[in-house]
């Protein structure tokens, strides 16, 4: 017998009894639309689609339909050939990131969607830090990242969007393999990655300081984590950043293969979401909307069926948006981060299969 899985919530929000006007100002509406819901997903290298649209556009639209305002993608067509337009000119396959962002049709369409937080794997052609960064490579990397950050700051001024310039999984990049037993890393490779990070950060900082805009741009390194201990260790060793307050380490990618247990996939995901929120991660990103490896890491399967993990995210978004709306109605401002996270944990704790 086919099992039907639904998600149920039994929650009650308590707000002051003296309810104020429900008419929102433009600023209140902007703050509501931009509010960081913490939980999100990504679309990188999906291996199927259901429309004639580029995969990047199709999956981004479905992520919005699910209720999310957070997105993670690759900005390099060479990493996900099918995600862009099927007739993408060859120039985009090895173009600087600012050219892809400003000229590639599928990317432009996605960037214009209602995402407030966009995380991007970004690479610069002809820059290879693994054998050390030459002066020419440092100059090329600086210019490429500066151009990208400046483009975001100018093009999306007035939207309040936040862009996070990152890269493919940094632990594997540093190792140079997918080995779990490798004990040594060449010192030249280590220094090359350090120099690469530093020049990218300088480019972002310089571009931000050069342009007045409400569009924020940041750099982030991507690593795989074992949650609390690793998160604590990374956070403790990060230098303070004036533009960023609070905890800055987030879960850039996690996921579970479904195999024959869709409810277990959702259950495990809810536990990661709750743990990340309790620790204080600004983002917790599920891998991913459509499967990209043929191992059922999906929210929507190859038959276009929304899985329990999708339903869990959708229900979570509905509850959290309702909470923020009601809070703004009552208090005339958005909830602070601590209040919001307390409610997130309660929602996730009471989310059940029924």
Helices and strands: which structural class? alpha/beta
* Radius of gyration over all CA atoms, rounded: 21 Å
- Low-pLDDT regions: 1-5
Distance linking N and C termini: 16 Å
Multimerization status: single chain
What is the approximate shape? globular
Mean pLDDT across all amino acids: 85
Q: Give the tally of β-strands.
A: 9
Into which percentage range does the β-strand content fall? 5-15%
Helix content: 40-55%
Descriptive keywords:
two-stranded antiparallel ribbon, alpha/beta, seven-stranded parallel beta sheet, 354 residues
Describe the structure.
There is one protein chain. Helix 9 runs parallel beside helix 10. It contains 11 helices and 9 strands. The strands form 2 sheets. Strands 6-5-4-3-2-8-7 form a 7-stranded parallel β-sheet. With 354 residues, it is α/β, with parallel strands linked by helices.
Architecture blueprint of SSEs:
Elements: E1 7-8, H1 26-34, E2 39-42, H2 55-66, E3 70-74, H3 97-103, H4 105-111, E4 117-121, H5 135-155, E5 162-166, H6 170-175, H7 187-210, E6 216-219, H8 228-236, E7 251-254, H9 262-279, E8 284-286, H10 308-331, H11 337-350, E9 352-353
Helix pairs in contact: 2-4, 3-4, 3-5, 5-7, 9-10, 9-11, 10-11
Q: Gist?
A:
Helix content is 43%, strand content 10%.
